[in-house]
Every structure is written in C-alpha cells, then in structure tokens.
Amino acid sequence: MLHTVKKVILYPLFLPAAWFLPFSAFPQGSASSLKDKQKLSKAKALFQEANYNGVLYHLEPLLKKWPDNAEVHYYAGRSNLELRNYRDALDQLQRVVQSGSKKFKDKAFWYGRAWQQMHEPDSALAWFGRYKSMLGKRGKDFHNVDYFVLQAENFKKFRAQPVQVQYRRLGQEINTEFEEACPTINAEGNVLVFTSRRPTTTGGGRDPFDLKYFQDIYISRRDSQKGQWLEAEPLKAVNSPEHEANMNISPDGTWLFIYKNIKGKTGSGDIWVSREKNGEWTRAREFEGPFNSSYFETSAALSPDGKTLYFISERPDGKAQGNGDIWACDRVSRREWGKPYNLGPTINTPHDEISVWMHPNGRTLFFASKGHNSMGGYDIFKTEKKDGKWSPPINLGYPINTPDDEIHFTVTADGKTAYLASRREKDENELNIYEFDLSQYELASPAGMNEPEKGLVKGSGVLSVIKGQVLGGGKPVQAEIIFLDEKSGKEVLRIDSDEEGRFFATLEGGRRYKVLVSAEGFAPFEESVYLSKKEGPQPFSLQRNFLLSR
Predict the structure, then answer these.
(1) Do residues 42 and 76 share a domain?
(2) What pTM does this model have?
(3) Whole-angstrom Cα distance, residue 185 to residue 268?
(4) Is 94:104 a contact under the CB 8 Å cutoff?
(5) Residues 370 and 486 in one domain
(6) Same domain flag for 349 and 489
(7) Does the bond joining 27 to the residue before it have cis omega, within 30 degrees of 0?
C-alpha cells in the first residue's frame, strides 16, 4: 500500500477543571506500601541509568495498583517517551498534568514533547508556552524549550506543503515484527544491506540493557526479472553473538562498512570493514587509517571514485561543531589516507549529525541531523558539492521527515527510489524499512558528476556503470584509469583499480568515452567505449576487462 500523508487523531488540548484533582500517594504504614515504595525507588534509580525498559518493568504493577499516583505516571511517561511508545507516554503525562502536583515543574514541557511526537504541533506549542510561563524571566530552562518550539513550528510549515512522494513498507522478505534499520544499496541497485534485531540473529542473545536481540547484518538481492527483493539472508562471515550494525555498502558493492563496539577493545563504537571476494565476504576487521578514535564513529560512506571517505565522529579536535560531526578523509595513495578534516559549519551544527551517505553521482551528500531546520529528532538533509564547496543543507521535507527520528537514507542511481528506516504505521514503535517513490521529486541529479563547467556537452542525465578488471600477463594489475569525454576530450573521472585489478565507475550514460589505462611496467592502453543508458532503479551496466601488454 502506498501512503502520502499520515492521518492523526486529535486529542483535547484543554482539560476540564474537574479533572485537575490531587493524586493519591501510597497509603502509610502498610507492608505493601513499603514494597511499592521500594519498587518506585528502584525504578527511579534505573531511570537515572537510562534503563527505560527496567523502569517500566518495576512500574507496571504500580500503574495498575495506584492509577492516581503522579510520581509513578511521571517516570512511566518519561520512559515511554524515550522508548517511542508515544500514546502511552501521552496518557501517562496527561495524568501528571491533571494531578496539579507541584513536584514536577517540567511536566508541561514533557507533556508538550508527547504531543509533538504525536504529530500535534499546536498542542505541543501550547504546552511549551505554559512551561515557559512557569519559568518566568529568571527561571532556568533545563530543556532548551525554544529548540523544540522551533521544531514544532518547522513541522507545521513542512506539513502544510508536503513533497510529492509516496511510500510503502517493504514486505516480509525484508521486515519482521522486530527492528530493521540502516538500509543501504549499491550503485547498481541490486543489493540491499540492512541491520536487524530478529530472534534468528547469531547466538540468539539479547542485549541486557534494552532486552532486544543483538544486531546482525542481513543482505537481500533484487530479482532482476520481477524487480523484487528476495528473502534476506544473514552475512554469516560478518556477524557474531554481539552487535554488528550496517553503516554502508560501497558503490561497487565490494566494501561493507560496519559499526562495532567491542568491550575492552574499541573503547567506543568504531568503523570496521568486510570485503567481498569471489562472491564471499571476509571476516570483519578494524578499518585501518586515521578514521577511528577513542570517541564514537557511527557512520562511514565511500565516494564513488573511492578517493574520499565521509564519516561521523564525536572527536572534539580540529573544527568540531558539536557532539557528532561529519568528517572526511582523502586517499593520498593506494594504501594511505590523509588527515581527517571537518566539513565545517555549513554542514555541521552544535546538534548531532549521525549518518552520512554519498549518491553515485559523486556530488550529492545525504545526512541525518538534529540541527538546521529539523522538524523533530533527526531529519534527512542533502547538500551538493560544486566548485569545491558544499551548498546549504536542504531538509527533504514531509512526509520523508517527521517529528520522529529519520536516520539512514539511501537513493538509487536514477534518483527515483529511496529507502529509509522509520516508524510509519499506527502504534509502530520498532523501525521498519520503507521504500519511497521519488519519481515526482528530484533529490539527486543523476549526472551530477559531469558538471557543465568541465566543458561537457549536456547529455542524458542518466547514470550508468562500467566495471571490470585490468589484467597484464594473465594476472591482475593495479592501474590508473582515466575516462575522457570523447567528443570534447575533457577528463571526466580518474580512478584506480584495486589489488585484484578490479575497477568500478559510475558515469553518464548515452555517451562515448576514451579510456586511458596506465600501470608501471606496462605499455599505455587506450580504448573507446560507448556507455548505453537505461531508465529504472538498476542502471545500465557494462562489463569490460582491459588487457595490458609490456
């Protein structure tokens, strides 16, 4: 089923005065009340540790036994808000507001947050206003309420002018009743990699903190005849009984970037990699280079030419703008990377940036941020690189973004289909993977790699793929490959083949290119190739090997 704009259920904003009655406390002097106080005390201690499932476990019997206790409902409501059980949170925080209790001075703020997550910005703004009135001119705002006011106002603006997209939840080949997240696709559009927390993950263990199954990485391939995703399978060589989360698959589909946090080894989440060789994935290893630090690295994406790695890091050095920022690192040789550099204040904000992905056009960067003009939580933004500078980020709009978190986003080479992990259905508190139809909404110029200022004649605007292997004397050769626009003679792309001689490039289709191949110890090689074009999520792909002679 395709969706456009979500329907919302309206709740009463102002409550009858008769509802604001004092809530009862636990009766004094009984053995049961002592046990109940101990449960509440334990729940409050777990709340300080951010163990929200534990909080609800201890409060569940109290919610039934003492339905008029404001303190019980306050901590239950706050926990359900963190766990994205928004309807329960709204009900419980409403009871706290009804109580008239003066113990929780921020109750109006948290009630406004619950309204915000229920897609009711007017109600959220009203309760944020009450919270600010309670603070007065000298009151200290511990919650930065103006930040959430701006988000609610942004949501109203974006929802009033929704972008022309439709979406559907992918079927049981991909999604389960458990969490599926972090979808990414390769440039050819025939491989989808994602993270899942289903019971069949390796070892079947649960994380003691949130009681969910550990994360594993799964892969699905597209049936080229039917255009459908096949049953996802776990990447057994990569997965372990602990957490493995997908960061990104490289455009050529041979590098998989993985998030791992190994107790006593990494000290924080780091970037790991697995390579696909002869149809098999290697065991994950730490990505060598200047990327990982003693701080969290949560996402990594390789540019189509393989020469720049974009990644998220919480490192405070350099020109860090906030907690998590987007950094980049350029390859200076086949085995060496330069010093990481921050993308700067145009892209990064004092708020968190958490994921990053580069389109096969080599120019459009998508990322998730809580800053800029977010309409709530993390939103997906895009920026375009032109003349070496990044454009001001653009919010992708509603309903791609919502007041909830939208984090991992990936787009096909033709720019017409996107995949996003989100919560879209009624009472859906687990992430699922959704497919977005962007045919009426241009997000990425497919031929972005071929800028007009490079002297290229305007072409088809459709990306195609050329891939293969460089061989010399029957053995793989590491070589430099230059693609020239045959008509103008202008250089379009310069890449290197890997240690197995393999190369992969995304170029504008419907063009003829002159290919120059050079390698130490071999005679220069030149060949003319025509790269056809094909509409659809899977671009035209040309397999071509280059044979060098001495």
Answers:
(1) yes
(2) 0.89
(3) 26
(4) no
(5) no
(6) no
(7) no
Q: How confident is the prediction for the chain on average, in pLDDT?
A: 88
Structural domain contains residue 59: yes
Q: 60 and 105 share a domain?
A: yes
How far apart CA 513 and CA 531 sit, in angstroms, is 8
Q: What percent of the chain has pLDDT over 70?
A: 90
**331/478 same-domain check:** no
* Same-domain pairing of 172 and 127: no
Kindly state the percentage of the chain with pLDDT values over 90. 71
Structural tokens at position 495: 């890449």
Please tell me the chain's helix, strand, coil percentages from 3-state DSSP, rounded to the nearest 5: 20, 30, 50
Report the first-to-last Cα separation within the chain, whole angstroms.
59
The Cα angle at residue 334 between residues 520 and 307, in degrees rounded to 5: 120
List of E strands, 156-244 = 166-169, 180-185, 191-196, 216-223, 228-229, 233-234
- Residues 277 and 263 both lie in one domain: yes
For residue 203, tell me if it sits in a domain: no
Which amino acid belongs to residue 326?
Answer: I
- List 530's β-bridge partners, or say none: 512
DSSP helix/strand/coil, 468 = strand
Nearest to 182 by CA among 223, 215, 231, 209: 215
For residue 213, being part of any structural domain is answered with no
Indicate whether 452 pLDDT > 50: no
The pLDDT value given to residue 460: 54
Q: Which domain holds residue 509?
A: 452-548
CATH assignment at residue 489: 2.60.40.2190
265 pLDDT more than 70: no
What is the per-residue pLDDT for 485? 93
Do both 419 and 503 map to the same domain?
A: no
Q: Which two tokens stand for residue 9?
A: 């259920």
Number of domains forming the structure of the chain: 3
What tens digit of pLDDT does each residue of 17-75 get? 333 334 445 555 555 688 888 999 999 999 999 999 999 999 999 999 988 899 999 99
